[in-house]
């Protein structure tokens, strides 16, 4: 649940995970101009006022967030904080110059990193446990990872044609062209995507898959 609480100058502005903010679970809250990350009663202060986009991963006891990047306008640097051996670790950087939106699925981080040479975004996957980053494709528009799945879906723009791909076992394969909409559903028993394409039969209509 989204909790908004003003009490003694402290504003709770993010999702919380756990029964008691003081001792259990994960929370992010704002105190003055600082953001406070709390994991199982231990706090880490983030003083960068551009910090935002917080995502809480209770399975790994990690908090992910972005700050404005020196790499360029509308680009961000991606960080995480975790608890190890009963101690809260200092923020660790994952990557720089990324698009603000990112996803955390099954312990991996999915995001778009700006490629200055191509003036487009590369699709990236970071495995925190192995400390490895994989670039799975260039010129990526959007990423749609699925929980518990070995593959992910992503889109590219070919001139004015939006194309859907599946990435599996290190290889990308084209699913369809003339994509108009795509929706991912991870909070179900069987995570899946649904997508629409321009109809091949009826002009102005779409086909649903």
Number of strands: 20
Uncertain stretches:
1-20
**Major beta sheet, specifics?**
8 strands, antiparallel
User: How big a fraction of the residues is strand?
Assistant: over 45%
Please count the helical segments.
Answer: 0
Integer average pLDDT: 86
- The SS-based structural class is mainly beta
Radius of gyration: 19 Å
Kindly, what is the distance between the CA atoms of the first and last residues, rounded to a whole number of angstroms?
A: 32 Å
Name the descriptors.
209 residues; five-stranded antiparallel β-sheet; mainly beta
Description:
The protein is mainly beta and 209 residues long. Helix content is 0%, strand content 60%. The chain has no helices and 20 strands. It has strands spanning 5-7, 10-12, 26-31, 34-39, 42-46, 52-57, 62-68, 76-84, 87-88, 92-105, 108-115, 120-127, 132-137, 142-145, 151-158, 161-168, 171-176, 179-185, 192-198, 206-208. The strands form 4 sheets. Strands 6, 7, 8, 9, 10, 11, 12 and 13 form an 8-stranded antiparallel beta sheet that branches. It has a 5-stranded antiparallel beta sheet with strand order 1-2-3-4-5, with no helix packed on it. A hairpin with a 2-residue loop joins β4 (34-39) and β5 (42-46). The two termini are 32 Å apart. The model is unreliable at 1-20 (pLDDT under 50).
